[in-house]
Amino acid sequence: MLEVFIFATLNGLVTGLLLFMLASGLTLIFSMMGVLNFAHASFYMLGAYFAYSISLHFGFWTGLIFAPIIVGVLGALVERYGLRRVHQHGHVAELVFTFGLAFLIEEAVQFFWGADTKNYQSPDLLDFPLFTLFGQEFPAYRGFMIGISITIFISLYYVLTKSRIGIIIQAALTHPHTVSNLGHNVPLIFMGVFGVGTALAGVAGVMAGPVLTTFPGMAVVLGSIVFVIVVIGGLGSLAGAFIASILIGLLQSYAIASDLGMPDLLNILGIEFSRDHPLTDLWTLTLPQIAPILPFLLLVLVLIFRPTGLMGKREQ
Amino acid sequence: MTVIKKSTVWICYLLGLLALPQFFDSVLAISIFNQMAIAIVFALSYNMLLGQGGMLSFGHAVYFGLGGFLAVHALVMIEFEILSFSIIWIPLVGGFIGLLAALFIGTFSTHKAGTVFAMISLGIGELIAASSLIFVSFFGGEAGISGDRTFGPPFFGIEWFQNLEIYYLAVAWVFIATLFMYFFTLTPAGKMANAVRDNPERAEFIGYSARRVRYITFCAAGFFAGIAGGLFALNYEFITEENLNAATSGRVLLSAYIGGLGYFIGPIIGAVVLTLMNSLLSNYSDLWMLYLGIMFLLTVLFLPRGFAGFIMMHQMVWAHGKIKSLVLPYLITGVPSFIFVIASVGLIELSHTDEAEFYYLGLNFDSTTAIDFILISIAVLAALFCIRKSLPQLRAAWESANEISDDDEKEAQS
Amino acid sequence: MLSADDNNSKNYRENKKLAMRTPQIFRYFVLSILLVFSSYTLSQEPVRIAFMDPLTGAFASIGNSGLKQLQFAADYLYNSKGGILGGRMIEIVPLDNKQSPTESQLQFRRAVSGGIQYIFQGNGSAVANALNDAINRHNRRNPGQEVMQVNYSAVDPILTEENCSFWHFRWDAHANMKLNILTDYIAANEGINSVYIIGQDYSFGQVVSDTSIELLRQKRPDIKIAGNEFHPIGQVKDFTPYVTKIVASGADAVITGNYGADMVSLARSIIDNGLDIPIYTFYAAYDGITATLGEDGKDRIRLIHNETSNPIPTEQRKEFYRAFKAANPNNDVTQPRITNALMMIVQAMEETQSTDPYDVGLALEDMRFTTIGGDEVWMRGEDHQVFQSLHISVHTDEGVEFDADNSGFGLYTEYSVPLEETIVPVNECRMRRPRR
What we know:
The complex is a heterotrimer of chains A (316), B (414) and C (436).
Chain A: H1 2-33, H2 40-58, H3 60-87, H4 91-113, E1 129-133, E2 136-139, H5 140-162, H6 164-174, H7 176-181, H8 186-212, H9 218-233, H10 238-257, H11 262-269, H12 280-283, H13 287-290, H14 294-305
Helix pairs in contact in A: 1-5, 1-8, 1-9, 1-10, 2-3, 2-4, 2-8, 2-9, 3-4, 3-8, 5-6, 9-10, 9-14
Chain B: H1 2-23, H2 27-52, H3 61-79, H4 90-109, H5 114-134, H6 136-139, E1 145-146, H7 163-186, H8 188-198, H9 200-205, H10 210-236, E2 238-239, H11 246-259, H12 266-284, H13 288-302, H14 306-312, H15 315-319, H16 324-352, E3 357-360, E4 363-366, H17 370-402, H18 406-413
Helix pairs in contact in B: 1-7, 2-7, 2-10, 2-11, 2-12, 3-4, 3-10, 4-10, 7-8, 7-10, 8-10, 11-12, 11-14, 12-14, 16-17
Chain C: H1 2-38, E1 47-53, H2 60-77, E2 90-96, H3 101-113, E3 118-121, H4 125-141, E4 148-151, E5 168-170, H5 175-188, E6 194-200, H6 203-219, E7 224-231, H7 240-249, E8 253-256, H8 260-272, E9 279-281, H9 289-293, E10 301-306, H10 315-327, H11 336-352, H12 357-364, E11 368-370, E12 376-379, E13 386-387, E14 390-396, E15 410-417, H13 419-422
Helix pairs in contact in C: 2-11, 3-4, 5-6, 11-12
C-alpha cells in the first residue's frame, strides 16, 4: 500500500506541476486582460506538435528551446491581431473568440499533422530509471519534468516580484493608465505577457507530448481541467493556481490509486442492494471510475460556496 | 399597422416552413429540415440565455439532452403501455424536464452572470456529460437509448411512420415555441432580462432582483431547450450522451453567435446556416470543420453582431432609400472577395489531397507539381490585393450612405 | 476614382477567369444531376455500396484506411475486370459518421435518399447498435427498400445475440469468441499466474472484463485476477497512476480492449514505467499505433484477430497486398475481412442475380467461402455471425514481410486456431425474419 501511496504522490506532483505550467500562463493573461483564454490548452498542443516536428530533424533538445518560442510568437500575434480587436466588443466576445480559436487550432493541427497519434519520443539521454522503489521504476524523464516546472515557477515568481519588468507588469495590471502616462507602452506589455503565457503553455506541451501522447485531442483533454484550476485557485491568483494545480493533480492520482467505492461505503453502513436495483450504477460506483470528473465536482462546489475561489480577491 | 405587419411576418414564417417539403422532398431533404427545426428551437433558447439575459453558457446542451432522454424514456413507456398519450405531446415532456433541471440548477448558478456563470455552466455540463456515461441504466452508456414513435395512439389516423409527418409536427412545435419565445421578449420579465444584462446594478435600483430576473430567463431557456430535445427524440427515436456533452453546447453557441446575438431572428439564421454546412458541406470536403472554425473566427472578428447584425446594419440605409448607392461598391469588393474565398479553398484542398489528380470546380489540378500551387496562390494574392485596394471606396460609400441629415432622421421616425 | 477604375479592370480580368470556369462548373452540375436521375433507368447502373465510418475527427485514420481497402478491393477484384452481374460496376460511396451514433443516423438517411442498400460499417459498437436499430425500423416501415448492414468490425456480441437481425451480418469474430481463444492461450502459458484487466468504461470494455474473468475462472482457476479497472473513454491524460497499480498488484499480464489513443497511451505508460509484462489486446496495430510503439513494444504486445498478417499463406493474397501497397503507399491492408465481406456479397449477388438485400441475405446464410488467403469462412444462418480461423500475433520486426505503418514492425502470428474450434453456440438470438 505504501508503494502505491508514494508513487501516487509522485505522479500527482508531475501532473500537478504540468497543470500549473498551463495555469500560470492562463492566470497571468486573465489578471492582465480579464479574459479567460479558452485556447490556452491549444497552445500547449501546438507546443507538442512543433516540438515533434523539430525533434524529427534536430532532436528533442532543439525542440524544447524553439517550439515554445514559436508558440509564444503565435500567441503574441493572436493577441495583437485577434484579441485586441474583439476587446472593444466586451468580455463575452473575447471569451467566444478564444473558444473559436481553440476549435480552429484543433482543426488546423489535424490539417497539418493529420488525425493520428504522433510518435513523439522522449530523449534517449533521459531514458533510464531515476530510481527504483519497491520494484517500481521512476523514469528520469518525469524527474526532469518536475525539475523544469519548479525552475520555471521560481524564475517566474522572481521576475514578477523582484525585477523591474515584473514591477511594471504588476503596475500595468492594476493601473494601466498611470503606467501608460509614465511612458511605458502598455499594449506592448500586454502582448508580451500574452506571448510569454502561451510560450509557457508551449513548454508544457513540449514536455508532456512524449508522456501523454501527441494527438489532436490532447488540448480538449487538458483544456477544461486547466480552466477549472484557474477558477478554483481564484481568478488572477498565481499562488492560488499553484495550490489548485497540485491539489487537483494529487486528488486525481489518489482517486485512481484507491480501490474505494460505494460498495465499501455501503458495507460500512451495512446496507445491501441486489444487482438489478434500478440505481445499481450508483451503488457500484468506485473512486477510480469518477476520478476524471472530480475536478468539475470541486469546481461547482467551490463556485457555489466560495465564488472567488481559494485565493481569489477580485470579482468580476 | 405594425400589428398587421408583424403578423404578416409570422404567417410568412409558418407558410415558409410548411411549404419547404413541397420543393425538396427527398428523404435527405426532409431529414435536413427536421434537423433545422430542432436546431432553430435550440438556438433560440440559447439566445434567450445569452443574447437576452447576458448569461454565457458552456453547458446548455444539458437541458436539451435531459429533455431528450426523458422524451425517449416516455416513448419506451408508451411502447410498453405504461403510459398512453399521443406522441405529439412528447416535446412537452422534454420541455418539462428541461424546466425542472433548470429550476434546480438555476438556484445556485444564477447568482452571478459573466465568468462565474460561464464556469458553473461548464462544470455542470462536464459533470452531467460524464455521469451520463457512468449511469448506464438511465442513459444507456455510449450506445444511448432508443424508442419507437409508432406505438402511441394514432393522431387523426397518422401513425408517424414517415419523417415527413414528423416534420409537420415539428413545424407546429417550432412555430409555437418561436411565438412564445418572441412573446417572452415582450413581457416585463423579458424586458428586465435585457436591463439586467446591460446593467444589473441599475436594475436593482429600480427594485428588481437581478438574480430573480436571471433565474426566470434561465428557466425559460431550459424549458425551450427541453422542447428541442423532445423534438430530437421524436425525429431520431434515440438519444445518446453526445447530445448533452460539451460539443453540443459549443455548437449551439456557434450557431447563435454566427447568426447574431441579440436579434431575435439571428439564431434562426445561424441554426439554418450551420445545419446546412453540417449536412451539405461535409459531403464535399473533409475539412468542413476547418472552414467552420475560420468562418466563426471571422464572424467574431468582423461581424460581432453576426449575420443578422450585418443585415440590420443596412436597415437605416434601406429606410432612406440609399441602398442603391451601395450595390456597386459592394460588388467591387465582393467579386474579389468571392474569388479570394474560392481560390483559398482550392489552395487548402489542393495541399490536403493525397491524390495526384484533383478536381475542383470542374477544373483538373495536378497536386504533384508546384505549378498549380503557384497559379492558385497568385489568384489568392491578386484577389487579396484587389480587396485591400477596394476597401477604402467601400468604406467611403458606406459612410456617405449613412450620412443622414436631420430631415431624413425625422422623416424616418415619423 | 482612379483606383476604382484600376480595380475594375482587375476585376474584369478576374471575372473573365471566373467566366471561363462557370460553364464547366455548370456542366458538371448538370451531369451529376443527370447521373442521379438516370441511375434508376439505365440497366448498367453501378451497384452502390456505402462505407460509413469516421472519415474526419479523432478516429479518421482508421476510417479512411478502411475506405481505401474497400475501394481498392472493389476496383482490383471487380471493376477492373468488367464489373459484376454482367457488367455493372461497384461504386463505393463514403459516408462520414464521425464515430457518432447521431451522425450515423443522418448519414443513414443520406444513404437511403441515394437508393443505397448496402452499408459497410465497422468502428464502434455503439454506432453499430444505433445503425442496427435504425435499419430495422426503416426496413419494417419501408418494405421493398430494405438496407443491409455489413458489419465488418464491430464486435459487441449483442449484435448477433439479443439484438440479432436478419439485415445485419457480421464478418468479424465477436468479443466473446476472441476472448475464448485469448484465454485459452493465456491459460496454456504456465508463466502467467495473475492478470490485470483494464478497459474503457463502456459496453465493449465491460464485455471484455466480464468474459475474461469468467473464462479464466473456468480454464485456470489458479490465475488470480489482480485487478479489474475501468477508466473513462478518452478522458485519461496520463495512465501512469494506473500502471502504478498494475505494478503494485504484481500482475504477470494485462488484458485490455482499449483502442485508439487510449491504447497507445496505456501501452506507452506501461513501457515507460519499465513494466515488462505482456499486453493482450484487440486493437494495438496499424494506423499509427505500430509506428508509435516501435521498438519499445517488441514482443510485448499480442493481438487476437482473423487472417494472418505474417506469414501470408497464399501468393494470391500477397499479390493483393503488394498491389494495394503500390496504390496506397501510406496505408496497409489492416482488415482483410472488408475484402471477405465484399467478395461474399458479390458471390451472393451473382448466385441470385439480384441486388435486393433480401435475396442476397438469404444466399449469404450458411454460405461457405474460401478467401484469397485460402481461409475457409462460414456465415452461420441462425445469427449471421461469421466463423473462420483466429490467430494470436505478436508485435515484432522479425519475420515480418508485410510491415505496418512502413515502420519495419508488424504482426507475426504465433498461435492459430482452426474454424471448428472457434464456433460458439447460438446464444439468445431469436431472429425475426421478414416475410416475402
